[in-house]
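Hey L., structure's done. Input below.
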Amino acid sequence: MPLFDYVIVGAGSAGCVLAARLSQDPQARVVLLEAGSARRPSAIDTPSAWPQLLGTEADWGGVTTAQAEAGELEYPRGRGVGGSGAVNAMAHIRGHRRVYNAWEACGAAGWGFDGLLPYLKRTEAAVGRDPALRGTSGPVRVARVSTLHAHYAAIAFEQALFSLGYPEAGDLSGACQEGVGWPDLAISGGQRCDPATAYLRPALSRPNLTVLDRTMVTRLTVRNGRCAGAEYRRGGALHTARAAAEVIVCAGAVGTPQLLMLSGIGPAAHLRDLGIEVAADLPGVGANLQDHPVVMTYYTSLVPLPASRNNHGEVYASLPSGLGGGWPDLQLFPILMPLAPPGCPAPAHGFALAAAVTAPDSRGTIRLASADPAAAPLIDPAFLKEGTDRARMSAGLKIARDAGAWFARLGISETLPGPAASAGDLSDWAMRTVGSYYHPAGTCAIGADPGAGSVVDPDLRVHGIDGLGVADASVMPLIVNAPTHATVLAIAEMAAALIAGSG
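Output:
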Protein backbone atom coordinates (compact mmCIF):
# COMPACT_ATOMS: atom_id res chain seq x y z
CA MET A 1 0.00 0.00 0.00
CA PRO A 2 1.78 3.16 -1.21
CA LEU A 3 2.06 6.04 1.25
CA PHE A 4 1.45 9.64 0.20
CA ASP A 5 1.16 12.84 2.14
CA TYR A 6 -1.99 13.88 0.31
CA VAL A 7 -4.55 11.66 -1.37
CA ILE A 8 -6.89 13.68 -3.59
CA VAL A 9 -10.09 11.98 -4.75
CA GLY A 10 -11.39 13.35 -8.04
CA ALA A 11 -9.44 15.02 -10.85
CA GLY A 12 -12.20 17.49 -11.64
CA SER A 13 -11.81 21.24 -11.45
CA ALA A 14 -11.00 21.40 -7.73
CA GLY A 15 -8.83 18.29 -7.79
CA CYS A 16 -6.68 19.66 -10.62
CA VAL A 17 -6.10 22.88 -8.68
CA LEU A 18 -5.21 21.07 -5.44
CA ALA A 19 -2.88 18.58 -7.11
CA ALA A 20 -1.01 21.36 -8.86
CA ARG A 21 -0.74 23.61 -5.82
CA LEU A 22 0.12 20.97 -3.19
CA SER A 23 2.75 19.35 -5.41
CA GLN A 24 4.59 22.67 -5.68
CA ASP A 25 6.23 21.59 -2.42
CA PRO A 26 8.80 19.03 -3.65
CA GLN A 27 8.69 17.28 -0.29
CA ALA A 28 4.92 16.64 -0.49
CA ARG A 29 3.94 13.31 -2.04
CA VAL A 30 0.62 13.77 -3.83
CA VAL A 31 -1.62 11.27 -5.58
CA LEU A 32 -4.67 12.24 -7.63
CA LEU A 33 -7.27 9.50 -8.16
CA GLU A 34 -9.81 9.84 -10.98
CA ALA A 35 -12.60 7.44 -11.95
CA GLY A 36 -12.70 8.62 -15.56
CA SER A 37 -10.10 8.68 -18.28
CA ALA A 38 -7.13 10.93 -18.90
CA ARG A 39 -7.86 10.58 -22.60
CA ARG A 40 -9.05 13.93 -23.88
CA PRO A 41 -11.87 13.86 -26.46
CA SER A 42 -11.19 16.34 -29.24
CA ALA A 43 -14.51 18.09 -28.61
CA ILE A 44 -13.21 19.38 -25.28
CA ASP A 45 -10.90 21.85 -26.97
CA THR A 46 -13.49 23.25 -29.38
CA PRO A 47 -15.62 25.72 -27.39
CA SER A 48 -18.79 25.38 -29.46
CA ALA A 49 -18.64 21.56 -29.32
CA TRP A 50 -19.38 21.20 -25.59
CA PRO A 51 -22.94 19.88 -26.14
CA GLN A 52 -21.41 16.92 -28.00
CA LEU A 53 -19.68 15.81 -24.78
CA LEU A 54 -22.91 15.21 -22.86
CA GLY A 55 -23.84 11.56 -22.75
CA THR A 56 -20.33 10.39 -23.68
CA GLU A 57 -17.67 8.72 -21.54
CA ALA A 58 -16.73 12.22 -20.36
CA ASP A 59 -20.09 12.43 -18.55
CA TRP A 60 -21.28 10.44 -15.52
CA GLY A 61 -24.69 10.35 -17.20
CA GLY A 62 -26.71 10.89 -14.04
CA VAL A 63 -30.50 11.03 -13.80
CA THR A 64 -32.58 12.79 -11.15
CA THR A 65 -35.64 11.56 -9.37
CA ALA A 66 -38.92 12.94 -10.75
CA GLN A 67 -38.92 16.75 -10.69
CA ALA A 68 -42.02 18.99 -10.56
CA GLU A 69 -44.19 17.71 -13.43
CA ALA A 70 -41.23 17.11 -15.75
CA GLY A 71 -40.37 13.58 -14.58
CA GLU A 72 -36.80 12.33 -14.38
CA LEU A 73 -34.16 14.65 -15.81
CA GLU A 74 -30.74 14.03 -17.29
CA TYR A 75 -28.10 15.31 -14.90
CA PRO A 76 -24.70 15.41 -16.60
CA ARG A 77 -21.45 16.06 -14.75
CA GLY A 78 -17.89 15.70 -15.91
CA ARG A 79 -16.09 12.38 -15.66
CA GLY A 80 -12.41 12.27 -16.52
CA VAL A 81 -9.35 14.42 -15.88
CA GLY A 82 -10.69 17.97 -15.89
CA GLY A 83 -14.13 16.95 -14.63
CA SER A 84 -16.99 19.33 -15.25
CA GLY A 85 -14.49 22.04 -16.17
CA ALA A 86 -13.80 20.02 -19.32
CA VAL A 87 -17.43 19.68 -20.42
CA ASN A 88 -19.14 22.86 -19.17
CA ALA A 89 -20.11 25.91 -21.22
CA MET A 90 -17.03 27.88 -20.06
CA ALA A 91 -18.87 30.88 -18.53
CA HIS A 92 -16.44 32.33 -15.97
CA ILE A 93 -18.68 34.40 -13.70
CA ARG A 94 -18.40 34.93 -9.95
CA GLY A 95 -21.27 35.02 -7.55
CA HIS A 96 -22.41 38.35 -6.20
CA ARG A 97 -20.18 39.55 -3.37
CA ARG A 98 -23.17 39.48 -0.99
CA VAL A 99 -23.49 35.72 -1.52
CA TYR A 100 -20.00 35.16 -0.15
CA ASN A 101 -20.73 37.48 2.76
CA ALA A 102 -23.81 35.38 3.46
CA TRP A 103 -21.56 32.30 3.64
CA GLU A 104 -19.69 33.95 6.47
CA ALA A 105 -22.98 34.79 8.20
CA CYS A 106 -23.85 31.06 7.93
CA GLY A 107 -20.77 30.16 9.99
CA ALA A 108 -18.14 29.95 7.26
CA ALA A 109 -15.69 32.28 9.02
CA GLY A 110 -13.14 33.76 6.63
CA TRP A 111 -15.17 32.91 3.52
CA GLY A 112 -16.75 36.33 2.98
CA PHE A 113 -15.99 38.28 -0.18
CA ASP A 114 -12.92 40.01 1.21
CA GLY A 115 -11.49 36.70 2.42
CA LEU A 116 -12.17 34.88 -0.85
CA LEU A 117 -11.18 37.68 -3.24
CA PRO A 118 -7.42 36.90 -3.29
CA TYR A 119 -8.22 33.32 -4.31
CA LEU A 120 -10.78 34.37 -6.93
CA LYS A 121 -8.06 36.58 -8.41
CA ARG A 122 -5.41 33.86 -8.10
CA THR A 123 -7.32 31.56 -10.48
CA GLU A 124 -7.57 33.88 -13.49
CA ALA A 125 -5.90 36.07 -16.04
CA ALA A 126 -8.73 38.42 -17.01
CA VAL A 127 -7.48 40.61 -19.81
CA GLY A 128 -8.73 44.19 -19.76
CA ARG A 129 -10.63 43.94 -16.48
CA ASP A 130 -10.19 45.95 -13.28
CA PRO A 131 -7.02 44.57 -11.62
CA ALA A 132 -8.27 45.65 -8.20
CA LEU A 133 -11.02 43.04 -8.48
CA ARG A 134 -9.83 40.65 -11.17
CA GLY A 135 -6.77 38.47 -11.53
CA THR A 136 -4.08 39.32 -14.06
CA SER A 137 -1.69 36.35 -14.00
CA GLY A 138 -3.63 33.25 -12.92
CA PRO A 139 -3.57 29.93 -14.79
CA VAL A 140 -7.05 30.18 -16.35
CA ARG A 141 -7.01 32.73 -19.16
CA VAL A 142 -10.43 34.28 -19.67
CA ALA A 143 -11.84 37.02 -21.89
CA ARG A 144 -15.15 38.38 -23.05
CA VAL A 145 -16.51 37.56 -26.49
CA SER A 146 -14.95 39.65 -29.22
CA THR A 147 -17.47 41.94 -30.90
CA LEU A 148 -16.13 40.61 -34.19
CA HIS A 149 -17.24 37.10 -33.27
CA ALA A 150 -20.43 37.83 -31.33
CA HIS A 151 -23.61 36.14 -32.53
CA TYR A 152 -26.08 38.71 -33.80
CA ALA A 153 -28.95 37.07 -31.88
CA ALA A 154 -26.93 37.59 -28.67
CA ILE A 155 -26.42 41.23 -29.61
CA ALA A 156 -30.14 41.54 -30.31
CA PHE A 157 -30.98 39.97 -26.93
CA GLU A 158 -28.76 42.52 -25.20
CA GLN A 159 -30.45 45.37 -27.07
CA ALA A 160 -33.91 44.00 -26.29
CA LEU A 161 -33.13 43.96 -22.55
CA PHE A 162 -31.76 47.49 -22.74
CA SER A 163 -34.99 48.57 -24.46
CA LEU A 164 -36.91 47.13 -21.48
CA GLY A 165 -34.91 49.35 -19.14
CA TYR A 166 -32.39 46.90 -17.74
CA PRO A 167 -28.93 48.38 -17.07
CA GLU A 168 -25.61 47.48 -18.61
CA ALA A 169 -23.07 45.63 -16.46
CA GLY A 170 -19.59 46.06 -17.81
CA ASP A 171 -18.21 43.06 -15.92
CA LEU A 172 -20.56 40.72 -14.06
CA SER A 173 -17.56 39.62 -11.95
CA GLY A 174 -16.44 43.17 -11.29
CA ALA A 175 -17.75 46.20 -9.46
CA CYS A 176 -21.26 46.10 -10.96
CA GLN A 177 -22.79 42.64 -10.68
CA GLU A 178 -26.34 43.44 -11.75
CA GLY A 179 -27.53 44.03 -15.29
CA VAL A 180 -26.77 42.83 -18.81
CA GLY A 181 -23.20 42.01 -19.73
CA TRP A 182 -20.77 40.04 -21.85
CA PRO A 183 -19.00 37.96 -19.22
CA ASP A 184 -15.64 36.33 -19.44
CA LEU A 185 -15.43 32.90 -21.02
CA ALA A 186 -12.64 30.41 -20.29
CA ILE A 187 -11.53 30.42 -23.91
CA SER A 188 -8.00 31.29 -24.94
CA GLY A 189 -6.64 31.24 -28.46
CA GLY A 190 -9.90 29.76 -29.70
CA GLN A 191 -9.68 26.78 -27.32
CA ARG A 192 -11.19 25.88 -23.96
CA CYS A 193 -8.93 26.83 -21.06
CA ASP A 194 -9.96 24.17 -18.55
CA PRO A 195 -8.35 23.29 -15.19
CA ALA A 196 -6.63 20.19 -16.55
CA THR A 197 -4.88 22.33 -19.17
CA ALA A 198 -4.27 25.37 -17.01
CA TYR A 199 -3.32 23.76 -13.70
CA LEU A 200 -2.58 20.05 -13.97
CA ARG A 201 -0.75 19.64 -17.26
CA PRO A 202 2.17 21.93 -16.28
CA ALA A 203 2.60 19.91 -13.06
CA LEU A 204 2.62 16.41 -14.56
CA SER A 205 6.41 16.23 -14.84
CA ARG A 206 6.90 16.63 -11.09
CA PRO A 207 8.27 13.42 -9.57
CA ASN A 208 6.24 13.91 -6.38
CA LEU A 209 2.87 13.93 -8.23
CA THR A 210 1.12 10.71 -9.28
CA VAL A 211 -2.07 10.81 -11.34
CA LEU A 212 -4.09 7.60 -11.67
CA ASP A 213 -7.02 7.64 -14.10
CA ARG A 214 -9.66 4.88 -14.51
CA THR A 215 -9.40 4.54 -10.75
CA MET A 216 -12.71 4.18 -8.94
CA VAL A 217 -12.50 5.08 -5.25
CA THR A 218 -14.94 2.79 -3.46
CA ARG A 219 -14.59 4.03 0.10
CA LEU A 220 -12.42 5.93 2.51
CA THR A 221 -10.62 3.98 5.20
CA VAL A 222 -11.63 5.39 8.58
CA ARG A 223 -10.21 3.97 11.81
CA ASN A 224 -10.62 5.35 15.32
CA GLY A 225 -11.95 8.66 14.05
CA ARG A 226 -9.21 9.24 11.48
CA CYS A 227 -9.22 8.87 7.70
CA ALA A 228 -6.12 6.88 6.83
CA GLY A 229 -6.52 6.62 3.06
CA ALA A 230 -8.74 5.62 0.16
CA GLU A 231 -9.59 2.22 -1.28
CA TYR A 232 -9.87 2.12 -5.04
CA ARG A 233 -10.45 -0.35 -7.84
CA ARG A 234 -8.12 -0.18 -10.84
CA GLY A 235 -7.51 -2.74 -13.53
CA GLY A 236 -9.84 -5.20 -11.83
CA ALA A 237 -7.90 -5.18 -8.56
CA LEU A 238 -8.54 -3.48 -5.22
CA HIS A 239 -5.84 -1.16 -3.85
CA THR A 240 -5.39 1.34 -1.02
CA ALA A 241 -3.62 4.68 -1.13
CA ARG A 242 -2.55 5.67 2.39
CA ALA A 243 -2.41 9.30 3.48
CA ALA A 244 0.21 10.43 5.99
CA ALA A 245 -1.31 13.91 6.23
CA GLU A 246 -4.76 14.18 4.66
CA VAL A 247 -7.33 12.82 2.24
CA ILE A 248 -9.12 15.58 0.31
CA VAL A 249 -12.34 14.64 -1.47
CA CYS A 250 -13.02 16.67 -4.61
CA ALA A 251 -15.70 14.53 -6.24
CA GLY A 252 -18.31 17.28 -6.59
CA ALA A 253 -21.66 18.00 -5.01
CA VAL A 254 -22.97 14.57 -6.06
CA GLY A 255 -19.91 12.35 -5.83
CA THR A 256 -18.50 13.72 -2.57
CA PRO A 257 -21.54 13.03 -0.35
CA GLN A 258 -21.95 9.68 -2.08
CA LEU A 259 -18.39 8.65 -1.17
CA LEU A 260 -18.67 9.96 2.38
CA MET A 261 -21.86 7.98 2.95
CA LEU A 262 -20.35 4.83 1.44
CA SER A 263 -17.57 5.30 4.00
CA GLY A 264 -19.95 5.56 6.96
CA ILE A 265 -19.96 9.35 7.21
CA GLY A 266 -23.43 10.81 6.97
CA PRO A 267 -26.98 10.57 8.36
CA ALA A 268 -26.83 7.55 10.65
CA ALA A 269 -30.36 6.26 10.08
CA HIS A 270 -29.92 6.29 6.30
CA LEU A 271 -26.58 4.47 6.54
CA ARG A 272 -27.89 1.84 8.93
CA ASP A 273 -30.86 1.18 6.64
CA LEU A 274 -28.33 0.20 3.98
CA GLY A 275 -26.18 -1.88 6.33
CA ILE A 276 -23.30 0.61 6.39
CA GLU A 277 -21.38 0.90 9.64
CA VAL A 278 -21.53 4.46 10.95
CA ALA A 279 -18.17 6.18 11.43
CA ALA A 280 -19.63 9.66 12.01
CA ASP A 281 -23.27 10.71 12.29
CA LEU A 282 -23.36 13.85 10.13
CA PRO A 283 -26.93 14.55 8.98
CA GLY A 284 -25.78 17.35 6.68
CA VAL A 285 -24.00 14.97 4.29
CA GLY A 286 -26.12 14.88 1.13
CA ALA A 287 -28.61 17.44 2.48
CA ASN A 288 -28.92 21.08 1.38
CA LEU A 289 -28.63 20.24 -2.34
CA GLN A 290 -29.08 23.41 -4.36
CA ASP A 291 -29.12 23.88 -8.10
CA HIS A 292 -30.35 26.50 -10.56
CA PRO A 293 -33.60 25.44 -12.25
CA VAL A 294 -33.91 26.52 -15.89
CA VAL A 295 -36.94 26.94 -18.13
CA MET A 296 -36.67 27.85 -21.81
CA THR A 297 -38.78 29.59 -24.40
CA TYR A 298 -38.16 28.54 -27.99
CA TYR A 299 -37.82 30.64 -31.15
CA THR A 300 -37.84 29.88 -34.87
CA SER A 301 -36.14 31.93 -37.55
CA LEU A 302 -37.34 32.20 -41.14
CA VAL A 303 -33.74 32.36 -42.33
CA PRO A 304 -30.62 30.44 -41.34
CA LEU A 305 -28.69 31.81 -38.38
CA PRO A 306 -24.91 31.68 -38.03
CA ALA A 307 -23.34 29.11 -35.75
CA SER A 308 -21.96 30.36 -32.45
CA ARG A 309 -18.17 30.53 -32.47
CA ASN A 310 -18.11 30.65 -28.70
CA ASN A 311 -20.19 28.84 -26.07
CA HIS A 312 -23.70 29.26 -27.54
CA GLY A 313 -24.49 31.77 -24.77
CA GLU A 314 -22.22 34.82 -25.00
CA VAL A 315 -24.39 37.42 -23.22
CA TYR A 316 -25.93 37.06 -19.75
CA ALA A 317 -28.30 39.12 -17.63
CA SER A 318 -28.14 38.97 -13.84
CA LEU A 319 -31.39 40.54 -12.68
CA PRO A 320 -33.63 40.78 -9.60
CA SER A 321 -37.04 39.16 -9.82
CA GLY A 322 -38.58 41.85 -7.63
CA LEU A 323 -39.53 39.20 -5.08
CA GLY A 324 -36.94 40.14 -2.48
CA GLY A 325 -33.48 38.86 -1.64
CA GLY A 326 -30.08 40.35 -1.06
CA TRP A 327 -28.72 39.87 -4.60
CA PRO A 328 -29.98 39.30 -8.16
CA ASP A 329 -31.92 36.03 -8.20
CA LEU A 330 -32.40 35.50 -11.94
CA GLN A 331 -30.05 34.86 -14.82
CA LEU A 332 -31.23 35.10 -18.43
CA PHE A 333 -29.23 34.02 -21.45
CA PRO A 334 -29.68 32.74 -25.01
CA ILE A 335 -28.78 29.25 -26.19
CA LEU A 336 -27.71 29.91 -29.74
CA MET A 337 -28.70 26.71 -31.51
CA PRO A 338 -32.00 25.21 -32.71
CA LEU A 339 -33.67 23.60 -29.71
CA ALA A 340 -37.00 22.16 -28.67
CA PRO A 341 -38.29 20.53 -25.48
CA PRO A 342 -38.20 16.71 -25.19
CA GLY A 343 -40.66 15.06 -27.54
CA CYS A 344 -40.77 18.00 -29.98
CA PRO A 345 -38.75 18.34 -33.18
CA ALA A 346 -36.21 21.15 -33.22
CA PRO A 347 -36.68 23.82 -35.89
CA ALA A 348 -34.29 24.06 -38.80
CA HIS A 349 -33.24 27.51 -37.63
CA GLY A 350 -33.68 29.09 -34.24
CA PHE A 351 -32.56 29.29 -30.64
CA ALA A 352 -33.88 29.38 -27.07
CA LEU A 353 -34.00 32.00 -24.36
CA ALA A 354 -33.39 30.57 -20.89
CA ALA A 355 -34.49 31.85 -17.50
CA ALA A 356 -32.72 30.45 -14.44
CA VAL A 357 -33.55 30.97 -10.77
CA THR A 358 -30.14 31.60 -9.24
CA ALA A 359 -31.10 32.13 -5.59
CA PRO A 360 -33.44 29.17 -5.05
CA ASP A 361 -35.20 28.49 -1.76
CA SER A 362 -35.81 24.83 -2.65
CA ARG A 363 -33.46 22.27 -1.10
CA GLY A 364 -32.94 18.71 -2.27
CA THR A 365 -30.82 15.71 -1.33
CA ILE A 366 -28.24 13.18 -2.47
CA ARG A 367 -28.91 9.74 -1.03
CA LEU A 368 -27.49 6.27 -1.63
CA ALA A 369 -29.57 3.79 -3.60
CA SER A 370 -27.54 0.95 -2.08
CA ALA A 371 -24.24 0.22 -0.37
CA ASP A 372 -22.75 -0.81 -3.73
CA PRO A 373 -20.20 1.84 -4.83
CA ALA A 374 -21.10 1.11 -8.45
CA ALA A 375 -24.75 2.04 -7.93
CA ALA A 376 -25.78 5.53 -9.02
CA PRO A 377 -26.95 7.74 -6.16
CA LEU A 378 -30.46 9.14 -5.82
CA ILE A 379 -30.33 12.78 -6.94
CA ASP A 380 -33.24 15.03 -5.97
CA PRO A 381 -32.62 18.75 -6.66
CA ALA A 382 -36.25 19.54 -5.65
CA PHE A 383 -36.68 21.95 -8.56
CA LEU A 384 -39.49 24.49 -8.04
CA LYS A 385 -40.57 22.76 -4.85
CA GLU A 386 -40.99 26.09 -3.05
CA GLY A 387 -43.63 28.55 -4.18
CA THR A 388 -41.11 31.39 -4.08
CA ASP A 389 -39.04 29.64 -6.73
CA ARG A 390 -42.09 29.13 -8.92
CA ALA A 391 -42.85 32.85 -8.61
CA ARG A 392 -39.27 33.77 -9.45
CA MET A 393 -39.33 31.51 -12.50
CA SER A 394 -42.55 33.10 -13.73
CA ALA A 395 -40.93 36.53 -13.35
CA GLY A 396 -37.87 35.38 -15.29
CA LEU A 397 -39.96 33.88 -18.09
CA LYS A 398 -41.90 37.10 -18.44
CA ILE A 399 -38.69 39.09 -18.88
CA ALA A 400 -37.33 36.57 -21.39
CA ARG A 401 -40.54 36.61 -23.44
CA ASP A 402 -40.77 40.39 -23.34
CA ALA A 403 -37.25 40.49 -24.73
CA GLY A 404 -38.10 37.74 -27.21
CA ALA A 405 -40.95 39.79 -28.63
CA TRP A 406 -38.31 42.25 -29.84
CA PHE A 407 -37.06 39.58 -32.28
CA ALA A 408 -40.23 39.78 -34.40
CA ARG A 409 -38.67 42.64 -36.37
CA LEU A 410 -35.91 40.19 -37.39
CA GLY A 411 -38.34 37.54 -38.62
CA ILE A 412 -37.87 35.43 -35.49
CA SER A 413 -40.96 34.27 -33.59
CA GLU A 414 -41.72 32.43 -30.36
CA THR A 415 -42.98 28.91 -31.03
CA LEU A 416 -43.15 27.46 -27.51
CA PRO A 417 -44.88 28.02 -25.18
CA GLY A 418 -46.35 30.40 -27.77
CA PRO A 419 -47.08 34.13 -27.83
CA ALA A 420 -50.65 33.60 -26.63
CA ALA A 421 -49.55 31.86 -23.41
CA SER A 422 -51.08 33.42 -20.29
CA ALA A 423 -49.43 33.79 -16.89
CA GLY A 424 -51.14 30.58 -15.82
CA ASP A 425 -49.96 28.83 -18.97
CA LEU A 426 -46.39 29.94 -18.20
CA SER A 427 -46.58 28.53 -14.69
CA ASP A 428 -47.76 25.18 -16.08
CA TRP A 429 -45.06 25.34 -18.77
CA ALA A 430 -42.38 25.84 -16.13
CA MET A 431 -43.56 22.86 -14.08
CA ARG A 432 -43.66 20.59 -17.16
CA THR A 433 -40.38 21.63 -18.77
CA VAL A 434 -38.07 22.63 -15.91
CA GLY A 435 -34.49 21.46 -16.27
CA SER A 436 -31.12 21.97 -14.66
CA TYR A 437 -28.43 24.56 -15.24
CA TYR A 438 -26.09 21.75 -14.07
CA HIS A 439 -24.79 23.59 -11.01
CA PRO A 440 -25.26 21.27 -8.00
CA ALA A 441 -23.85 22.64 -4.76
CA GLY A 442 -24.19 22.67 -0.99
CA THR A 443 -24.26 18.99 -0.01
CA CYS A 444 -21.31 19.17 2.43
CA ALA A 445 -21.71 22.74 3.61
CA ILE A 446 -19.16 24.78 5.56
CA GLY A 447 -20.23 25.72 9.07
CA ALA A 448 -19.26 25.63 12.70
CA ASP A 449 -22.07 23.39 13.97
CA PRO A 450 -22.62 19.89 12.57
CA GLY A 451 -25.86 19.76 14.53
CA ALA A 452 -27.14 22.60 12.36
CA GLY A 453 -26.34 20.72 9.16
CA SER A 454 -22.75 21.67 8.36
CA VAL A 455 -20.30 18.98 7.27
CA VAL A 456 -16.93 20.74 7.14
CA ASP A 457 -15.48 23.45 9.36
CA PRO A 458 -14.10 26.73 7.93
CA ASP A 459 -10.77 24.97 7.33
CA LEU A 460 -12.70 22.46 5.16
CA ARG A 461 -12.05 19.55 7.54
CA VAL A 462 -14.90 17.10 8.04
CA HIS A 463 -16.44 17.41 11.50
CA GLY A 464 -15.47 14.51 13.75
CA ILE A 465 -13.01 12.84 11.36
CA ASP A 466 -9.33 13.72 11.50
CA GLY A 467 -7.29 13.75 8.32
CA LEU A 468 -10.25 14.28 5.98
CA GLY A 469 -11.14 17.39 4.01
CA VAL A 470 -13.54 18.38 1.24
CA ALA A 471 -12.95 21.02 -1.44
CA ASP A 472 -15.50 21.39 -4.23
CA ALA A 473 -18.95 22.88 -4.89
CA SER A 474 -20.45 20.76 -2.12
CA VAL A 475 -19.00 23.04 0.58
CA MET A 476 -21.01 26.12 -0.47
CA PRO A 477 -23.54 26.90 2.28
CA LEU A 478 -25.53 28.91 -0.30
CA ILE A 479 -25.27 28.46 -4.03
CA VAL A 480 -23.75 31.40 -5.89
CA ASN A 481 -26.08 33.26 -8.26
CA ALA A 482 -23.96 32.41 -11.29
CA PRO A 483 -22.34 29.37 -12.90
CA THR A 484 -20.41 27.71 -10.09
CA HIS A 485 -17.13 26.93 -11.82
CA ALA A 486 -15.24 30.18 -11.14
CA THR A 487 -16.12 29.86 -7.46
CA VAL A 488 -15.05 26.20 -7.32
CA LEU A 489 -11.60 27.15 -8.59
CA ALA A 490 -11.31 29.75 -5.82
CA ILE A 491 -12.49 27.26 -3.19
CA ALA A 492 -9.74 24.89 -4.29
CA GLU A 493 -7.14 27.67 -4.26
CA MET A 494 -8.14 28.63 -0.72
CA ALA A 495 -8.18 24.98 0.33
CA ALA A 496 -4.62 24.51 -0.96
CA ALA A 497 -3.46 27.55 1.00
CA LEU A 498 -5.18 26.32 4.19
CA ILE A 499 -3.67 22.85 3.84
CA ALA A 500 -0.19 24.20 3.10
CA GLY A 501 -0.48 26.58 6.05
CA SER A 502 -0.30 29.75 4.00
CA GLY A 503 -4.00 30.66 4.09
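The first strand starts at residue 3 and ends at 9. Residues 18 and 496 are 6 Å apart (CA to CA).

-- N.
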